Amino acid sequence: MVTVLSVGGSIVAPDNPDTDFLSSFVSLVKTWLAEDNSRKLILVIGGGGPARSYQQAFRRVIPAGADESADWIGIMATRLNAQLVKAIFGDLCPTEVVYDPTAVDVFTGRVMVAAGWKPGFSTDNDAVLLAERFSATRVVNLSNIAKVYTDDPRVNPEAKPIDAISWGDFRKIVGDEWVPGKNVPFDPIASMHAQKAKIQVVCAAGRDIDNLKAILDDRAFTGTVIG
Q: Is the model's pTM score more than 0.85?
């Protein structure tokens, strides 16, 4: 049984690596895996603060620089974060960090860690591709927001939290275009792919370890179900 978590870089490394979160997260995952030997977990790690910092530096120096260049900068940040997570899991994750989700065929060990692949989308899309490849029907998207809103609540005080939403309605919120560093609950390209593949996505606050345990255990949780 494979479960896929898209772990936002904003919780792994908001500015620098968050060691308190990583310690709690790894402890939860190890406990959860030990409860059932059939469980396997794919972790797709985002770029977070390092990605934003280096992309912003690029834009300041080259204001009209190509999106592809900005994307590659973000991808390299995801790979650094992913290498850290892989190292922390030790023997549970014997496979090298996955860069190309379409090229991996065998899942050895209990944990697989993946990072950014190529320009044009975020690690959310890699998570959907890996879910499809290993027959997972759900991707759990962990970020610094507890629920998806009808609009950006930081800008629009009338924005309302959403418990469940169809892919069609969700895509009206996020659009269909990927912009490197774009702050959306789930990547528009990944959303199109997930809708086509009939994969459900759960968006939830990644730092809420108790809530994450409830999601993994299929109990009542706080978050937004898409699909």
A: yes
